[in-house]
C-alpha cells in the first residue's frame, strides 16, 4: 500500500491501491484507521540515515502519537525505544516487549506517587519540576534522572503544540540552572541526561539549531551525562505542495555540532530524539463512508459516518488532511464541505475539491497516523473505530471496533426507588 505523496494529484491514485483500501473498508467496516507499516519503517530509516555519522544514536518513539500495542511492537522491532508520558504508556511499552532501559518517562504535572511507581519498573525517569527533582533526588539519589529543560524558544505550528516558550508549563527554565545544580550537589543524585522539546510542526531547522545551542550550554555543566535528548517536532506534509522539515540538512548540521560538543565534553555520549508524528503520521489513512449529500443554497455537504469524536485534529488544531474519494478517484472534481455526524459543528474541510461524491462512497483522509485515533472519544455515545495494520501485503486487524456493550462495561446501573 502506497499512499499519495504531497506532490501527487488525487486522481493519480492507482486502482490497486484503491482496491486495497476499499477491500479493507468492505471487510472491516467504516470508519476505520489503516496504517502502513512499511511507511513507518521508511521514516525510521530516513531519520537514522540522516544521523548515521553519529556514533551513538537513540530514537525513542513518542507513544502518545499512536499507542496501539501492535504498532509499538513493530516500531521497537525496528530498533527504537519509547518516549512515554504516563504510567499507562510505560506499561503498554513493556507489554509490547520493549525493555525497561529502552523507555524514557517524561511526565508533566503527575503525582509524585506515579513517578515513584514508574521508577520501580526500571525505566529512565525525566523530571521537569524543581520541587519534584529535589524530592526524588533526596529519596532516590541512586536512580539516574534526566532533566527536562525549557529553552524559552517559541516554536511549533500551533500554540497548543508549542511547549518550549517562557510561559509553558513544561520543563525547568534555563534561568533556573543554578537551582538545579544546587539540588544535584545537595542530594548527590545522578543526572545522566538533559532533555528539551520545543514544539511540533516546526518548519525552520534554524529553530532546532538555536535551541540546541541552549541545550549544549546547559549540558556542559553536568559532568556525568550519558545522553542529550533533543525532543522532536519535525514537520510532515499534510497537503499537496506542503513543506516539511528537511531532516537530511538538519542531520548534517546537528551531527557536526554534536561531534564538536562530544570532543569538548571529553567523551562520546548518545544523541537522542523522540519522534512521534514524523514516524507514523504519513503511514495512516482514515476511511469513512458518505451517509448523504446535502445541498444548501451555497454549499454542498458530504456527510460522513464519523465526526470529531474520531478525528479531532482539524477542529482542534486547524489541521488540513487531504481527502480523496476512494470509490470514484477519476470522477469530475467538485467542491464539497466534508462534515461529520456530531451534534456540534465538526467540519473536516470547507469547499474542498474532491472527485464527485455519491452516497455510499468511501472517503480517505491522509496523514491520519498521528494524534488521530489516540485522541478519539465516545462523544455522543458513538463507538470508537477499528484499526488495521498493513504489513507484508496483508491487512491485520489490530483493534476491534467497539460495541454498545463496551459503552456499558464500566458503568453501574443503580436501583432507583
How would you sum up this structure, described in words?
This protein has about 425 residues and is of the alpha/beta class. About 30% of the residues lie in helices and about 25% in strands. It contains 12 helices and 18 strands. It has helices at about 15-30, 35-50, 70-75, 85-95, 110-120, 130-140, 175-185, 205-220, 245-265, 275-280, 315, 405-410, and strands at about 30-35, 55-60, 80-85, 105, 125, 145-150, 170-175, 190-195, 225-230, 270-275, 285-295, 300-305, 325, 335-340, 345-355, 360-365, 385-390, 395-400. α8 links the parallel β8 (about 190-195) and β9 (about 225-230). The longest helix is centred in the middle third of the chain and has 19 residues, at about 245-265. The N and C termini lie far apart (about 60 Å).
Question: Any low-confidence stretches, pLDDT <50, length ≥5?
Answer: 1-16, 155-165
N-to-C SSE string, H for helix and E for strand: HEHEHEHEHEHEEHEHEHEHEEHEEEEEEH
Task: Report the C-alpha radius of gyration, rounded.
Answer: 23 Å
Task: Name the CATH superfamily assignment of the largest domain.
Answer: Alanine racemase
Instruction: Bin the helical content.
Output: 25-40%
Shape: globular
Q: Count of helical segments?
A: 12
